[in-house]
Amino acid sequence: MIRVAIVGTGGIAAACHLPALRTQAHRAEIVAAVDVDAGRVKAFCAEHGIAGAYTSVEVMLAEERPNLVHICTPPHLHAEQAVECLRAGAWVWIEKPVCRSLAEYDLIAAAELDAFASVVSQHRFGSGARHLREIAPELGRALVALCVTAWYRDDAYFEVPWRGRFETEGGGPTMGHGIHQMDLLLSVLGDWTEVRAMAGTLDRRIETEDVSMAVVRFASGAMASVVNSVLSPREESYLRFDFSSATVELRHLYGYRNADWTSGSPLWNPPEDVPSSHEAQLAQLLDAFERGDAPPMSGPEGRQSLELISGLYASAFTGKPVLRSELTVDHPFYHRLDGGKWS
């Protein structure tokens, strides 16, 4: 059995990670959970039948020696906790946003000596997205794409102390919300080369933006328009891919099935109906663990959406186009998404 620990017992752990792990109960056992709030972690473990309740990642790693750790804490804790787990020999599966900057991501990658880190990117793993990637070469050249995250979060949502601040969340809805659709966009169109963006704080009482918009050029020559908002009362997640011989569209909110996709192409016929979900990605991660291979969404693949987001913020803050090739260690937005450095 693969020994699993969960770090962070808030909403995402209960809503997404526990159900995913239950589908893999034949090969994965949850042996421990960690939270800084002793009462909360004890209640979480009692409710879900988990034997080990801890308030320290270090102590949990030493006593439980898990094979895999699910990191479900606020973003500013991800890099430090991931590195700690990797150095202890445990694989990590990190909720997105994976960390606050490319600099932090590269610290995580450097710690992958005897274990791997993988980023939660569940929209890549639904059958609709997998089918689109399979048939895309037969649809002709990718030309135009639309990528819209039109969500709604009221002021109360941002009363959680770590939300809406660069120091603790890394960025705003571009980082924490739009990343889902942008990651799926990248999985289909591949590497980007240039981004031109704007961002603004129009209505929420937060430090970060509540809206961003961008135009992105890809290495293939395709171009995409990207919108990220938490001010949209009629919520929708929308992607449109215009190839030279077909259009493929996806309309959903927080997750999709095959019925949420449309295409006029006779090639569009997914052979199975697998929803985009933590369950779908976790199954592939555990397969990789059992083989001893690097899992999906590790290494450069896991870095992909964070690169685009870093470029988007850099363009929005500087008012200039940003090339992907510019985002090196010498670039200020490599270190922090508001252009500074973590103290």
UniProtKB/TrEMBL annotation:
* Gene3D superfamilies with a match to the protein in the record: Dihydrodipicolinate Reductase, domain 2, NAD(P)-binding Rossmann-like Domain
The record's Pfam families line, in alphabetical order, gives: GFO_IDH_MocA, GFO_IDH_MocA_C3
Which positions fall inside the GFO/IDH/MocA-like oxidoreductase domain? 138-239
Domain Gfo/Idh/MocA-like oxidoreductase N-terminal: start-end pairs: 2-110
Q: Which GO terms describe its molecular function?
A: nucleotide binding
Residue ranges annotated as coiled coil are none
* UniProt-listed InterPro entries: Gfo/Idh/MocA-like_OxRdtase_N (IPR000683), Gfo/Idh/MocA_Oxidoreductase (IPR052515), GFO_IDH_MocA-like_dom (IPR055170), NAD(P)-bd_dom_sf (IPR036291)
Q: Which PROSITE patterns match?
A: PROKAR_LIPOPROTEIN
Q: Which PANTHER family match?
A: D-GLUCOSIDE 3-DEHYDROGENASE, UDP-N-ACETYL-2-AMINO-2-DEOXY-D-GLUCURONATE OXIDASE
Its name, as the record gives it, is Oxidoreductase
Q: Which organism is it from?
A: Acrocarpospora corrugata
